[in-house]
Amino acid sequence: MSRADHSDRACSLARCAVLAAAAAVLVVLLSLLRTGPLIILQGLAGLAVCAVGAWWFLAHRGVVRVLGGALAVGAPAAVLALFLYGGLWFTAPAGVALWAGALACARGALRADRRPERPAAVRPGRPPRRPVLIMNPASGGGKVARFGLVERAEALGARVLLLTPGTRSDVEELARKAVAEGADLLGVAGGDGTQALVAAVAAEHDLPFLVISAGTRNHLAMDLGLDRSDPSRCLDALTDGVELRVDLGDVAGRAFVNTVSFGVYAAIVQRPEYRDAKAGTALDALPDLLAGGAGERLDALADGLPVTGQQAILVSNNPYSAADPLEVGRRPRLDGGELGVLGIRVDGAAQAADLAVRGALSPALTVLTSRRVEVRAGAGDDSDSAAGTAAASIPVAVDGEALTLPTPVVCTLRPRALRVLVPRNRPGAMDQVPELNWRRIATLALDRPGPGARA
């Protein structure tokens, strides 16, 4: 499709977005003429009550938890009943549908408007002659066997090292030994924590690194655009691949490819029962952590900027999409040279309600980027006294792996330190949509291209 066709499509989608958004607003205004503004206030109140219920459910036990669960479920049902009783049985769904259509068209317009760019870090990859792949048969519920990864890899000339289920293997040592024996590529079929350990060795020796999406969540594979439904397709890179240069995170001298979590989530991951019963363990631990029992507050310095009293801090290898910090999905790029930082501080039901209503605008969230992040236990914690600061340690989850590290814990990035070999054709390699910008949508709808929008 030519650039002109892209521009025409962007303008058409932008006009549809503006019309749908205007229609959604009109539907709401017409509803207000019939029912008055009270119905909107009732909807916001229902959202706040739902958030309070969710907070009580997570932060308490016993009767309060049961009451919180009832509020979290009952409040939306009550609001729906009020809308139906108020005569909004048609207008409310119509408004929601129109707004959803407006958002879909707006994002499509922004995607079509973007100038296709070839990342500077992409270059043709040479097929490796002695690739070594480390595979975890237990990862992802047995994806290695289910997709025949060993047989397919060996048919393509790779040497496969299988980890033994139920035993602790020194993955990093296996990778170093493979390099010493002449490997010219290292790859991993396993979780992101295992990926990070081998990626560090590959970066140290400037060798290509191959990601095989055989883990449970496969965050790194997703952001690389790899096929997460069929990990065998990742092996296509061995014969027809391109090379990307991506950043590699560092936390206290240990590599990470996705995220480092501090606070509530990190404390839950430390529990030995977490691996076998994630949801139950989290529900059992959260009341102590959120209500100030076992959970400690955290302070951080992000390029010198203080972020204090946080219950949870998430540091990511490049920032996740900023459109909705609570819904960390994809990272638009992996070679931006900056860490993403997300801090959460919710001190009670009122702040939980504010977070639910205002979202990213709530003061409960801190969202920023940084090149260096230093995290330590909060100043109010007994372990962080003047005499014990140097010896204090905190729980940390590095790419989902539970660790305990001495404070201050320092996170940095090694820009474009990792060579990643990926298949030339990647089903998930799509242009990332810029953050939703209605001013740009309006400009496109009026067919007034901004600077650089047209070739």
Describe the 3D structure.
With about 450 residues, the protein is α+β, with helices and mostly antiparallel strands. About 40% of the residues lie in helices and about 20% in strands. It is built from 13 helices and 17 strands. Strands 1, 2, 3, 4, 5, 6, 7, 9, 10, 14 and 17 form an 11-stranded mixed beta sheet that branches. A hairpin with a 2-residue loop joins strand 15 and strand 16. Helix 2 crosses helix 12. The chain is globular, with a radius of gyration of 25 Å. The protein starts with a helix and ends in a 10-residue tail after the last helix.
Helical content class: 25-40%
Envelope shape = globular
Tell me the strand percentage band: 15-25%
Distance between the termini: 13 Å
Low-confidence stretches: 116-120, 323-327, 381-391, 450-455
Write down the secondary-structure element order.
HHHHEEHHEHEHEHEEEHHEEEEHEEEEEH
Rg calc: 25 Å
Largest sheet: 11 strands, mixed
Number of helical regions = 13
What kind of oligomer do you see? single chain
| Average predicted confidence as pLDDT | 79
Class of secondary structure makeup? alpha+beta
Number of strands: 17
Short description, anyone?
The protein is an alpha+beta fold. Helix content is 39%, strand content 22%.
Spell out the blueprint of helices and strands.
Layout: H1 3-35, H2 38-59, H3 62-85, H4 91-113, E1 123-124, E2 131-135, H5 143-146, H6 149-155, E3 159-162, H7 171-180, E4 185-189, H8 192-204, E5 208-212, H9 219-223, E6 241-251, E7 254-256, E8 259-263, H10 264-269, H11 278-290, E9 298-302, E10 305-310, E11 312-317, E12 339-344, H12 349-358, E13 365-370, E14 372-377, E15 393-398, E16 401-406, E17 409-423, H13 438-445
Helix pairs in contact: 1-4, 1-13, 2-3, 2-12, 7-8
